[in-house]
Write a structure and sequence with these properties.
By secondary structure, the protein is an alpha+beta fold. The strands form 6 sheets. It has an 8-stranded mixed sheet with strand order 7-6-5-3-2-1-15-16, with helices on one face. The protein has a 6-stranded mixed sheet with strand order 8-9-10-11-12-13, with helices on one face. The chain has a 5-stranded mixed sheet with strand order 19-18-17-20-21. The longest helix has 26 residues, at 186-211. It is globular and about 65 Å long. It starts with a strand and ends in a 14-residue tail after the last strand.
Length: 526
């Protein structure tokens, strides 16, 4: 099995029975904020796109690059579709001209022509990607590969049961806006960023240890930030709170926990994988490339500057009445929402900065009141500040997912009172009836579920599954004092009370070993 690195989470897998191109991303994403690094735009995409099969893990725009897919990927390719709850991915592929689809069933192995086998595991909670994320398992002639990309399964047992894995591709770096955009003192940002950076690595080590593959390939990040306004997000300033460590940092950190089987794929690197080993060649020495990272970024910044400026020029739509359009689009969704609206629990304020950089229009999405209206000087728990032009553009193109556009762009600032509230972001990911109805149904089903199995961690008996997204706490749970942390997503719980310290709701059932009852023992997810 030959794997060619094509940048970020992208790779081409070649076997004698067929080829698979995965997650090709080249064009800037999220309001021209994210670019692939190392740069992959100069690869021979005409050749790379001439494949038998195409797999895109999910609809995040650093995985689903519509312009690139339309121009460079053969329309003769069969698209391997994860079993997602909505038809959005297939619909988008059809709009790009793809006509051949293999609709997989979740976690079922499919044998393709010539003995090539694949299996796709789909994750379908409202917080998994843009309503869905997935991983691809591939086997040919005894060689097995898992392309986990940036999916976060609760465990990898489904893949391990299919046989020993020889190549494991997975994310290790950040792909979020927290904590950089929050209006916090720099010391607090650094502390929170350091915690997140450490959790990212801890989660990666657990996945690696679960699968015990022969070779580990760090992929799916980090992006680079080439706009001058976002340049500080690149991990080139010796900032221990930066959440975007690169592949060379991965190798160094992996070595600290005893990892010796890491392989970096630069764009153009080729790894020949067999049951007995892997031989990898690179277009340039990996160590030399990352030693010159700043120079590479500066060269990219100048080369990509015209692209960024052209994108910025397209965002303004002064003809859009923002308040009127927000009312028209969002108020019907607020009327339909039960769980998400209750979960948000209050008004969310948007401060829209005008073209002059000074004037501000403040608009509130009032979840209890089920309306969008001008801000009335009331207290709000969540506030976002961004350029009016960005919201104009979202409304102009009918964007149904503000998380997969505005928020991931990091072109905003945020402030909140109290805990993180996942329902805020879940709602703004679901600005269509189809998405909202799915999210409401998912929360309805999972809020009613009772996790009856208990496990013991240290001095505490707790329910086995994390109330957040059902991670197995026997593997991901760590107890320190009276607090439990689920390392899959970093959520924390106060065990004596059962209260979630990370977000609203999501109580955990727990009591000290040997005690019959406790305050939280009968607490169910709320």
């Amino acid at each position: 099995m030959r794997v060619t690195g094509t940048g970020h989470a992208s790779m081409r897998i070649d076997t004698a029975a067929g080829s698979i191109l995965c997650d090709p991303w080249v064009n800037p994403a999220y309001f021209a904020s994210w670019f692939p690094f190392p740069d992959n735009s100069q690869l021979d995409w005409e050749a790379l796109g001439d494949v038998d099969y195409l797999y895109v893990s999910h609809l995040h725009r650093d995985h689903f690059d519509a312009a690139h897919l339309k121009r460079y990927v053969s329309k003769k390719a069969t698209v391997l579709l994860p079993e997602f709850p909505t038809s959005e991915m297939e619909d988008e592929f059809r709009e790009l001209g793809f006509t051949k689809f293999l609709k997989t069933r979740n976690e079922e192995v499919v044998e393709l022509n010539g003995g090539l086998k694949i299996m796709i595991q789909a994750l379908t909670s409202p917080t998994d990607g843009p309503i869905g994320d997935s991983s691809l398992w591939v086997e040919y002639d005894g060689v097995r590969l898992l392309n986990q990309n940036d999916a976060r399964p609760t465990d990898l047992s489904t893949f391990a049961e299919l046989g020993h894995v020889h190549a494991h591709m997975l994310q290790f770096s950040g792909a979020i806006w927290y904590p950089m955009v929050y209006e916090l003192p720099q010391a607090a940002k650094t502390a929170f960023g350091k915690q997140k950076r450490e959790r990212q690595f801890d989660r990666t080590w657990r996945y690696i240890d679960d699968l015990k593959a022969d070779h580990v390939f760090p992929i799916a990040g980090p992006p680079c930030f080439l706009d001058d306004e976002l340049w500080q997000f690149n991990d080139i300033f010796d900032d221990e709170g930066n959440i975007f460590p690169d592949q060379s940092v991965f190798l160094a950190e992996y070595a600290k926990v005893g990892g010796t089987n890491g392989i970096v794929l630069l764009p153009g690197s080729v790894s020949e994988i067999t049951t007995s080993g892997a031989t990898t060649t690179h277009p340039v020495p990996v160590e030399e490339f990352f030693a010159n990272k700043v120079a590479h970024l500066e060269e990219m910044r100048e080369r990509k500057r015209p692209i960024i400026e052209a994108e910025k020029a397209s965002w303004r739509h002064p003809e859009v009445d923002v308040l009127k359009e927000l009312k028209r689009r969002i108020e019907p969704l607020l009327d339909e929402s039960i769980y998400l609206a209750k979960g948000v629990g209050g008004p969310v304020r948007f401060d829209l900065v005008g073209y002059d950089g000074e004037s501000v229009e403040s608009i509130v999405v009032d979840f209890p009141g089920k309306q969008v209206r001008p801000y009335a000087d009331e207290k709000v728990r969540y506030r976002f500040r961004t350029e009016r032009a960005l919201v104009e553009h979202l409304l102009h193109i009918g964007e149904v997912d503000w998380v997969n556009s505005l928020f991931l762009s990091c072109r905003f600032s945020a402030a909140r009172i109290g805990q993180y509230n996942e329902f805020v972001y879940a709602f703004f990911k679901c600005l269509s009836t189809e998405r909202l109805q799915y999210a409401e149904g998912w929360y309805d089903e999972h809020e009613r579920a009772v996790d009856a199995e208990d496990i013991t961690i240290g001095d505490w008996t707790v329910q086995r599954r994390c109330p957040h997204l059902k991670a197995d706490l026997s593997r991901f749970g760590i107890v320190e004092g009276d607090q439990l942390t689920c390392q899959l997503h970093g959520w924390r719980f106060d065990l004596p009370s059962g209260r979630c310290l990370t977000s609203v709701g999501h109580k955990i059932r727990a009591h000290r070993v040997g005690e019959e009852t406790s305050v939280s023992e009968t607490a169910q997810p709320s």
